[in-house]
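Morning!

As promised:
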Amino acid sequence: MTILAEPPPHTDTLAHNHQQCVDDALKIADQLCTERGVQLTAIRQQVLALIWESHKAVKAYELLDRIKPLQAAAKPATIYRALDFLLAQGLIHRVESLNAFVGCSCSGHQHEQLLLICKQCEQVEERMAAGVMQVLAEEFRQAGFSAHSKAIEVHGLCRRCSQL
Amino acid sequence: MTILAEPPPHTDTLAHNHQQCVDDALKIADQLCTERGVQLTAIRQQVLALIWESHKAVKAYELLDRIKPLQAAAKPATIYRALDFLLAQGLIHRVESLNAFVGCSCSGHQHEQLLLICKQCEQVEERMAAGVMQVLAEEFRQAGFSAHSKAIEVHGLCRRCSQL
DNA sequence: TTGTGGATGTTATAATATAACTGATGGCAC
DNA sequence: GTGCCATCAGTTATATTATAACATCCACAA
């Protein structure tokens, strides 16, 4: 079983240039939406930017609080509609086990990912985990199951936090 | 990569003797609780039995409605407390992506499982998926991640429903 | 008896999410 | 330009999921 190379994990907010993450995410979002002929409106972009403020998963009502300075009229529906859009475009992940949302760093790729959620620093690392997905596919074949979507969410301690 | 043998899937309510599933589940629960010196009280047993009425994932408030004939005083806390107990004992799974609960057919085993959730018939098949878990473990090692819990929930069509 | 711990009862409320209708905007066919 | 349509956002209300906090009960042991 060969495991494909992974992009460097960004679980260390101190050590990486986070503004670069945000800029990249917004730029990619912009490009993808243009290509697809869908609108990355101001609200949607603001929500995406708020989600990318950290590598932690963010709750919808936290986003609501944080968008209010920019969108005074914001209500739950404002946020949930933006989240629905971003999810549909693959720009964010929903973290089911936390009822929260995190930026997707492989936006535009179709493959599903593995989400490693740190209990300590709360950051979420996304990994393509090609090997895992391949073995999973074999498992589905055996089970006669046609998979439409999968979430692999793992709670534990990230490299950094387990070393502390 | 060898895949271990799986117990026969019980995704077909019509074709299998479901009463057997329920009886087995209750008997195993009883044994485990006795062994562990914890109390499988009437409420807890009733909730477990209600969850086992089908192989579908059941919502907490559905359980609340269904337990009322038996426990007229039942309130949300009644159900959530019973669910917490059953989860702690490994007798049920929480299906994060549905905010619902399903009986665990490998109660007492420590290993994590793969949950295959059918969009059509709503039944949940549990698989040990030893191969998947093994490859996952290798992935964690590479990521320097110490996993404490993992949920692998896959939505799609089960064998039966994809053949219809 | 008297405490102690576990389970349950009870009330209230928090947290998460959606429905349904209204209005505003902008493109485009005519 | 006018009218039409689709998309997005505003607004109100409510549904759904989950927990907090405190009271009560009861079995059992000291």
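Residues 59-61, 76-77, 80, 99 of chain A lie near DNA strand C (CB under 10 Å from a C1').

Hope this helps with the figure draft.
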